[in-house]
Design brief:
The complex is a heterodimer. By secondary structure, chain A is an alpha+beta fold. Chain A contains ten helices and eleven strands. Helix content of chain A is 50%, strand content 18%. In chain A, strands 1, 2, 3, 4, 5, 6, 7, 8, 9, 10 and 11 form an eleven-stranded mixed sheet that branches. Chain A starts with a helix and ends in a 10-residue tail after the last helix. By secondary structure, chain B is α/β, with parallel strands linked by helices. Classes of the chains: A alpha+beta, B alpha/beta. Chains A and B meet through helix 8 of A and helix 1 and helix 2 of B.
Chain lengths: 363, 236
């Protein structure tokens, strides 16, 4: 019983853990990528007004482009030439369009992010960790950051981001400015779209057309729902596996009870004979042993439930998960135990009820 | 055997028991036996002589192959197992050589088991059990566990259990077989006392001295039953 509850509980805990990671954001997210694995298509960039086109679709809350600048970009808080070469590559630079911020659900620690009005200015938003690294405690003084010796004004520090957390570890600059100084995105840009709940699928279908009506194959939009469907099938397979494991544990438990009861019957042959000679009918004897094995099963179920629950709590503690247990597992366990005891006691009780009173006189 | 049938507790007529097999074993050859109310009948015989067969038949634990058995005026031959079980529980008190007490239950509960399978109120069962324990001189040991009792005390508890159901007949199988001679003596004294109070006793033994306690003795040898002696003149 303990094993039964523990296995079921740990499965639910793990599942809900995965679920909670998946659910909240994934059902409202669409990622658009340029199709690069088709050799017959020319790589096409996102159109300049990509953000506006997508935001116009029904169900879209926000959309934003982002790409990373090359790894050799130098970032420094000092003006050249003092901002030595040692800063090369240690801090990455991202180019993002203004819609990116609301699409990824960032929260700002200080200052602000850039919107369409600042999209063509040399401004930058940095992650909290990067701000510390660059020695910027405050953006009030409008500190500057130099990217390949081009100065940018830091206007905001990020605390967190729901999606694309890379922005927390980067210096982000407006996409238009990045394109002006560093040219075409390489690696290619991606678009992140935040949708209304349930709209992700439809938006994903419409996006390639909206971006390139002439040749929708240039873009590939994926929803997290697809990944989720895969995960669901994996997790249901896993669930079945664990359930089978739990059932095997139950069967072993039932065989144990049956064996214990059978041994008890054989040990108590003379007591049974005595009871029969005192006027007990076979059904009285059968009922007695059936009740004993049922009680045994119920007690086992109770003990097992508490042991199993503690196991789940223990495992969750060790893994720093949130312990999750379906209440029905806990409520049902003692009853399942009793039912199992009843089932396991059937044969031993039958044996007991067939013992003749004469047995009391032998030995 | 001159008394009227009304007074007979057990009346066996031409009762025989043959066990199937090759060859069939005639454990008990056709015999007649009448046990009257207030009798103290002892049955002697070497082992394998048919003593146990007789006990099983009288105790309704087995059915005779032929003949008729009237217990308390009821012909138990045609009754089904259910009815026989009910009669066994109500009319016959068993005393076993090995006591057959539940070791982890106090004396009182052991005695109350006698009336467990009847539709009587718990209060009545408690009262009858106390009375029975008092009757065997164990009123002070009511709460004691059998595992902490002497052999004599245990057998007294067992006798109290047999008496608690207020049976017509006390059926004892070697009740002193597991007791030393002094204790056996006191248990036998108890049987004599109970008999003097009008309780009918059938006691099976292989010990001639024990057998001499009864007012009647029958001997079984090779399945044949013979009445040895009849010592009337007991107080009754």
């Amino acid at each position: 019983m303990a094993a039964f509850v523990a296995v079921l509980g740990i499965t639910t805990t793990a599942n809900s853990q995965i679920d909670s990671r998946f659910d909240a954001l994934s059902s409202t997210q669409v990622i658009v990528e340029q199709q690069t694995d088709d050799p017959f298509l020319d790589a096409a960039d996102f159109p300049d007004d990509a953000e506006a086109r997508i935001t116009g679709l029904a169900g879209v809350r926000a959309a934003g482009l982002h790409w990373a600048l090359g790894a050799n970009t130098r970032v420094s808080a000092q003006p050249p030439p003092a901002g030595g070469r040692d800063a090369v590559g240690t801090i990455s630079v991202m180019a993002v369009s203004p819609g990116f911020w609301s699409a990824t659900g960032v929260s700002v620690k200080a200052g602000r992010t850039f919107d369409a009005a600042l999209a063509d200015d040399r401004v930058a938003v940095v992650g909290e960790g990067i701000a510390d690294q660059l020695g910027m405690a405050d953006v009030g003084g409008q500190p500057a950051v130099f990217i390949d010796d081009v100065p940018f004004t830091v206007i905001g520090v990020l605390r967190s981001a729901d999606r694309v957390p890379d922005s927390l570890l980067s210096v982000s600059i407006p996409a238009n400015v990045a394109a002006r100084y560093w040219g075409r995105p390489d690696p290619p840009a991606r678009m992140i779209i935040a949708t209304d709940v349930g709209a992700a699928r439809t938006v994903a279908d419409q996006t390639p057309v909206a971006l390139s009506a002439a040749d929708p194959d240039h873009f590939k939009a994926t929803t997290a729902v697809e990944a989720r469907a895969l995960r669901d099938s994996v997790s249901s397979d896993l669930g079945v596996l664990f359930l089978v494991l739990a059932i095997i544990c139950l069967v072993i438990g039932a065989v144990g009870i049956a064996n214990t009861t059978l041994v008890a019957v054989l040990e108590r042959v003379s007591e049974i004979g005595l009871r029969r000679s005192l006027g007990a009918l076979p059904r009285h004897i059968g009922a007695q042993f059936l009740m004993e094995s049922t009680a045994l099963g119920a007690i086992g179920g109770l003990v097992g439930t508490s042991v199993g629950t503690w196991c789940i709590v223990g495992v969750s503690l060790a893994k720093s998960w949130t312990a999750t247990l379906t209440p029905w597992t806990v409520v049902a366990a003692p009853f399942i135990g009793a039912g199992l005891g009843l089932l396991a006691g059937l044969y031993p009780s039958l044996r007991a009820s067939r013992i003749e009173p004469i047995e009391a006189f032998r030995r | 055997m001159s008394s009227s049938a009304d007074d007979a507790v057990v009346q066996l007529t031409g009762v025989a028991r043959t066990y199937e097999g090759f060859p069939p074993v005639e454990a008990l050859k056709p015999c007649d036996l009448t046990i009257e109310r207030g009798d103290f009948l002892t049955v002697v015989g070497p082992s394998g002589s048919g003593k146990s067969t007789l006990l099983n038949l009288i105790g309704l634990l087995d059915r005779p192959t032929s003949g008729s058995y009237v217990l308390d005026g009821v012909d138990v031959g045609p009754l089904d197992e259910r009815q026989r079980t009910a009669i066994r529980g109500h009319r016959i008190g068993f005393v076993f050589q090995t006591f057959q007490l539940l070791p982890h239950r106090p004396a009182l509960e052991n005695v109350m088991m006698a009336t467990l399978y009847r539709a009587s109120a718990r209060g009545d069962r408690l009262a009858s059990a106390r009375e029975a324990l008092h009757g065997v001189g164990l009123a002070h040991r009511i709460g004691a566990l059998p595992s902490r009792m002497s052999g004599g005390e245990r057998q007294r508890v067992a006798i109290a259990r047999a008496l608690a159901g207020n049976p017509s007949l006390l059926l004892c199988d070697e009740p002193t077989g597991n007791l030393d001679s002094a204790t056996a003596e006191s248990v036998l004294d108890l049987f004599s006392q109970l008999n003097a109070h009008g309780i009918t006793i059938v006691l099976i033994t292989h010990d001639g001295e024990v057998a001499a306690r009864g007012n009647r003795t029958v001997d079984i040898r090779d399945g044949r039953l013979t009445e040895l002696s009849r010592r009337d003149g007991r107080a009754s």
